[in-house]
Each structure stands twice: as structure tokens, then as C-alpha cells.
Amino acid sequence: MNEKDKKEIIQEVILTLSKKHRISWASDFHAFEKGRQLTLAGVTFDNFPKGPNTKRTDGDVVAHAIVMALGSATKTGDIDDWFPDEGETGIKSIEYLTSMRKRLIEPKNLIIGQVDVTIICGEYPRMKKKVPLMEQNIAQGLGINLEQVHLKVSSMDGNDEFARLEGIEARVIVSLWEDFM
Questions:
Q1: Are 148 and 139 in contact (CB under 8 A)?
Q2: CA 84 to CA 96: how far, in whole Å?
Q3: For residue range 127-175, what is the model confidence (pLDDT) as tens digits?
Q4: Residue 39 DSSP one-character state
Q5: Cα dihedral angle (89, 28, 43, 58), rounded to 10 degrees?
Q6: What is the mean pLDDT of residues 10-38?
Q7: More confident: 143 or 13
Q8: Residues 41-61 as b or e (16 or more Cβ within 10 Å = b)
């Protein structure tokens, strides 16, 4: 086989696989308010001075960003499309991940390749200790292996909004594959 034929075959394989591969990025930000509890990826931070100012859910920016990334990758809408505001309060957002797995991922025969999360907040040292538990909760909710989840925390040095603990943000990248076997 000559080089030209090899190159054409490789390009065809890449094109075929790229039609089966989806990547999406999403973020969620909530302003902080005193007296609110902070929950990230289903983990509650009891001694945190502030929490998200949400009314309906626990304000888990990690879970919210993952839902939005999954909806974007599949072109099925954002978090409000999947979980409309119907007056219910006290919702644990981490449960959204299991719901997305059962209502979207499994019925469409999708395979999650990777979930990469960055949490941005000035109080990152407190959060860093709970990264393994947060990764475990994400993996469990989505029904994937722990090796497919990576979570890191950043303080965004120099960004006053985060340093003053005015809010928290999660940025997420997900990769999905259509099951082509």
C-alpha cells in the first residue's frame, strides 16, 4: 500500500470516528450569600462561610455544569430544559447526574469518555481535600469509572470576585461516543 492510500484510509477512519465523537464545554456560576450551605458534586462543605444564592436546588455548580455540557453535546437543551422550575425546592443537584444517565445517555446508547471539571473559588484549599469524594460522586451518578473523571480546584489568583468569595464557578468538558459496536 502506498503512502497516499494509507493517508486516505486514515482520513476516512478519522472522519468516521469524529461523527461518533462529541465534545462539549459548559460552565455554571452562582453568587454567594451568607448563611447558605455550599455543596459541590454532592459534597457538603459545613464550615464554609457562604453558599450559592439559589432558591430551588442546593446550587451545586459542578452538577449543573455537567448537566449543561451533556445537554449541549447531545443538542438536547440546557439544565432548564431537562429540569424545569416546577416549584419544587430542596433538590440535591447531584441526583441530576443519575437522571441524565437514565433519561439521555443510556437510551441514546452513548458512552461517556471523560468528564473534566475545574472549580474556581478563592477558598480552594478547603475544597482540595474533598476532591476524591467529589470525583467518586460524579462517577457514581453517571455510571462511569473513576478514571474517567478528573476534578481540580483553582483560586484564579488575581481575580477579585473569586478571592473575595463573591461567587463560585464550575467549568466542565465532557466527551461522548456513540456506541458503534
A1: yes
A2: 12
A3: 888 999 999 999 999 999 999 999 999 876 655 555 556 788 999 999 9
A4: E
A5: -10
A6: 84
A7: 143
A8: bbbebeebebbbebeebbbbb
**By the 8 A CB rule, do 96 and 83 touch?**
yes
pLDDT digits 0-9 by tens, 111-127: 999 999 999 887 656 78
Contact 134, 63 (CB under 8 A): no
- Give this prediction's pTM: 0.85
Helix or strand run (H / E) with residue 180: none
- C-beta of residue 163 within 8 angstroms of C-beta of residue 56: no
Q: For every residue of 108-173, which 3-state class applies, written as one string? A: CCEEEEEEEEEEECCCHHHHHCCHHHHHHHHHHHHCCCHHHEEEEEECCCCCHHHHCCCEEEEEEE
pLDDT of residue 11: 86
Please report the pLDDT score of residue 127 as a whole number. 81
Burial class (CB in 10 A: 0-12, 13-18, 19+), 173: middle
Kind of pairing, strands 167-178 and 21-34? antiparallel
Q: Which amino acid, one-letter code, is at 101?
A: R
Nearest-angstrom CA–CA distance, 49 and 135: 23
**Neighbour tally for 81: CB within 10 Å:** 11
Instruction: Reply yes or no on domain 22-178 having CATH 3.30.1330.50.
Output: yes
